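PT: before anyone asks, these are the final sequences, not the draft ones from last week. 600 residues across everything. Please model them as a single complex and drop the result in this thread when it's through.
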Amino acid sequence: MKDKFFSYIQVLQDQITKKLEEIDGEAHFQEDIWERPEGGGGRSRVIENGAVFEKGGVNISAVHGALPQSMQNYFGVEDVDFFACGLSLVLHPKNPMVPTVHANWRYFEMYDQEGHIVDQWFGGGQDLTPYYLFEEDVIHFHRICKRACDLHDPTFYSEFKKKCDSYFWNAHRDEARGVGGLFFDYCRAADQMDLGQWFDFVTEVGNSFLEAYIPIVIKRKNIEYKPAQREWQEIRRGRYVEFNLVHDKGTLFGLKTNGRIESILMSLPPHVQWRYDHHPKKGSEEERLLKILQSPKDWV
Amino acid sequence: MKDKFFSYIQVLQDQITKKLEEIDGEAHFQEDIWERPEGGGGRSRVIENGAVFEKGGVNISAVHGALPQSMQNYFGVEDVDFFACGLSLVLHPKNPMVPTVHANWRYFEMYDQEGHIVDQWFGGGQDLTPYYLFEEDVIHFHRICKRACDLHDPTFYSEFKKKCDSYFWNAHRDEARGVGGLFFDYCRAADQMDLGQWFDFVTEVGNSFLEAYIPIVIKRKNIEYKPAQREWQEIRRGRYVEFNLVHDKGTLFGLKTNGRIESILMSLPPHVQWRYDHHPKKGSEEERLLKILQSPKDWV
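LR: through. Structure below.
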């Protein structure tokens, strides 16, 4: 399974970066191959200063070795080795009318000291972080997510949509990071789904990504915007940084397993602002977004 | 002791904000009084868009109540109440030739369920984060720190300087946040120092702050700088954000005790950049700073 999934994310990385370069029309991904001293490595692809994408990364990695002590404590296990591979992407568009997007699809295995698999599971998801709210875009994104889910289980969309809202909750701000999408984790072989069926589900979601995001980019990338709207985007990007550095388990996992820092932190936006006690004007588009983030709603 | 120290930091906040406004010459501190639902509150003073200070805060707070569960685990105690008060300041100057400064002086008490004090200590320090290295400025800052220490114990400077270097270590970047200063914590009554003597020491350091920092600001605030130097400052500010959100115990304490978010996060810089895999040119001033941050040195 680990070889099968790793092959899948290699091909998916090619498909996604090719499409994104085509949409951007100017910038190209810079590729960095890296090795992890303790085992494994990755292939990072980062785009910067594009016509559409101000900064973004589409990275794959496959790492293995002894599970670090802090992660053993986290999982409540002792003396285990691990293998983890996945694709992580974050795109920060230049135009504040185009939402930031994040996606991740991953597979994890744990072994005892004889090398036998003691646990294995999939995880992942994809979610949208707009700076201005176009409801039809959010509905489109969620519809594609739902379609991918419904092909595998009628309960998945509703379950994984809720998990996404609760995972990407910026608790110290009492607001969501964005308008959600899907989040799932610890998808193990069980009564209704064996591991092969989980593979089919996770790759279904991975294959839906471009269809979920690209039409929104095309629709919004040429809208004119004002300096004040760009400032609002930079202020909101600050909340993105806060979530990723304070709450995000993926970032934490990368830092604790001695992953490549520049690949982990490619998720941080290029230009960011923090203003003291900033509040949007009453009745503004900016305030309308905030209200949605403070009480996540159903979109489909 | 808690009343005595709280009175002290109220007066110190007035002295420091008065002096900073005088140096800035344009902007004034905005004051916000806030209450903590569980007990206590604070007086935040924030300056923005000044001629010298692009963003900064000089905040005092005094909070009390049941110690939150996560903090009880951290301290290894059960069923205790607490009182904590302190002054925290961070100043982000506009000119990249002027260093960012941080200082904090605080006092903590813990009580059993009968209200008896079971533990009490002081903590604090002050440290400098330059974007360009003027060695004479760093030496000046450390000399003032050392003088304040030497008046109380000849071993303090060397001990608290080392603690500062190790506390403000941005572990995931393998570099210091800045060029250090002083850091001390859990300063309890013991053989050589009773609590009153610790009060005298901590207030000595607090009283030394303006003399340690202001001459540097005056010397550097009118130096002309280029857009590329400003960009370097914004990139380095990103490392400041990373430290504060990933490693800083003070920020964590504030978030976990339901402190006022805008007062806690006033420490975040106004304009920040993240570039992928950024490295300064060989032999540049920027690289010279990095080398110092990678292996902290003795300044006095």
